[in-house]
Amino acid sequence: MSARFLLPAAMLLCAALAGCASSAERQAEQEKLIRRAETHVLLGSGYMRRGQLDVAKQELDKAYDLAPNNSQVNSMMALLQWRLNNPDEAARHFRKAVAAEPPNPEAWNNYGVFLCERGKIDEALTWFQKAAANAFYRTPEEVNLNAGVCLMKKPAPTVAEKYFREALRINPRLPGALYQLAKISLDSGQVLSARGFIERYFQAAEDTPESLLLAVKIERALYNKNAEASYALRLRGKFPTSPEAGQLQTLSGARKK
Question: Is the pTM of the predicted complex or chain greater than 0.90?
Fold first, then answer.
């Protein structure tokens, strides 16, 4: 009697093993497709950095065909569509990127920047905060900087300052945060604090027309004519055709009045 059940049991065991093998094979195939997609993403991002957007799109299209729900694929495709000035397509891919698993805080940050550029500041801030709170995100100082810059568009300098200071707590030499805090300090009348931030900026970063003009304004507010003239000379010498260099004449005229 028992022998009558041996064959069905054996058949069930074989079926179970075959099912496991089939599941393992499907998983292996899926991982293979994702690895191929990641290769195309790397190639596409490289072409994007070099400005070869048409070739980048070819590579990212291949990646998307292989893994249409992958967060990294959609995040990079969103950045490309953004560069191509296709905001609706960029938004669609960003939404897929931030909804995918596993979590992708880099996509959250990029989506925040995208939303901020389109004037959706409060929504952008939600994604910046989400990215900053993720323990696995490698550059939380950049997220805080982006959040602060976004809030300056509101404008909400008092709230923005908290994000800039948090960015500096993580990275005391972050140029963007130092520049922004120098600007906020000058605008709020804390001129000595502004000088401290802009001096730290120049220790951490290269001269820019914006930073040099800000330094001119700070030293002007402190009535330090020598330092003001020195920064103005650097601005004219390094960036003679910049709009900031053109503003120096206006500043000089305002002083004479």
Answer: no
